[in-house]
Here is the input.
Amino acid sequence: MVSNNGIIGILTNLFLDLAAHDRDVVAQSWFAGIVGDSFRVRRDATPVAVNSPIEWQDFLQINSSKDVGVGIPTPGIPNLVASSSGGSLATGTYYYKITALDGVGETAGGTEASAAVTGPNGSVAISWTAVPGATSYRIYRGTSAGGENVYYTTTGTSFTDTGAAGTSGSPPATTSAYINRLAAAGNSWLMGGNLGIGAKTKLSKLTIVARPSSAISGTVAKTAGSSTLTGTNTKFLSEVGIGDRISVPGVVAETKTVTAIASDTSLTVDSNFANTASGQTATLFPSILRAENSNNVVQMVMSDQGNIGIGTANPFQKVHTVGTIRAEAPAYPGRQIDIYTAAANFIDSTNDLYIRCGSTAGMSFSVGASQKMGISNNGNVGIGTTTPGEKLEVNGNIKLGGATVRSGTGGPNNTVTGNVGDLYLRTDGGSGSTLYVKESGNGTNTGWTAK
Here is the structure.
């Protein structure tokens, strides 16, 4: 509907001219249309009587910057009760508007109300209806219609103006207090409740459900020994994301992770294909979550299998990082441990390093599946044995500086090769034949002397 002054509006009950101050009938109405440089959805909050003031409350606004906001409603007309006592207001008429604040922004000024005061000790008691989402309110006062130029702040829904000094300022013409805001630039937010992406029930503060697997458009071709997947009539740029897994049929179906997308018809996967096939319909397994930097380089991904990759789009384990992992205790700043891989694997601590296990458990240091050293729960250390019987038990030889300590049965001469200074402990020896020292002949099996 278009009014005679060019205002466009859609109303549920009647058309109200936004330039008018009074209503023609008693009915609550909604307005949707252009106000200034923005599109707004408004409600006429509290129709009281014919010719009563119109109280427009903005609920939704789309401005010229393409920002979309579901706003906190503008407070309604305040109720004013003037008194000739209790303050320092001079004789005159005072005008008031109320705004609501949400901790981030402020609504536009509400409908103006006025009160005649008899001074010089006048005051005005002001009250209004609470606004959902508001954390505080501002009461603007002026001495002429539309001339409010000082304000007071309160967290309640009532205030008594005694004429005390306030803060200079006028009520804003547009709202900046939003319950929900989606901005083309700047901050966006959703206030209250739980948010579901791909889900509508059993929601936490944020619940994300990945898209189900599905066939992609067109057909694809793969070549053995190549990590490139080419498409015909495919839409890789719009249908596939880095970190998604893609399954390609053939002699053997192969599932790979997408690591780069060059065009709608060419992408790269994490490893070479093992067989060649063409004209195939590929199945996509979309990732649950992906985070990219401003250059569209993936920094983190959660795969459809629940694996989290940091610095990699192809996580092989539940948590897979490419880069250094650092742990630091908040109570001890500067004390940290880094885990990283360079030419070798490192655990780097800036302070003492403690490795602990349960009181009934032991520790194992293994190469592959073979334990090389262990610490039992009684503190015994075993090297080459999994059942150390002493504080240190070694199953094998011990090197001390340039000398080697060995043990065995039988004498070492003509059977054990060693160097000068080596020791041999004979476990079946007797008096004078238990300890042997290599006194001559490096690299020979002679020169052992019993001690």
Q: What stands out?
A: The two ends are 117 Å apart (CA to CA).
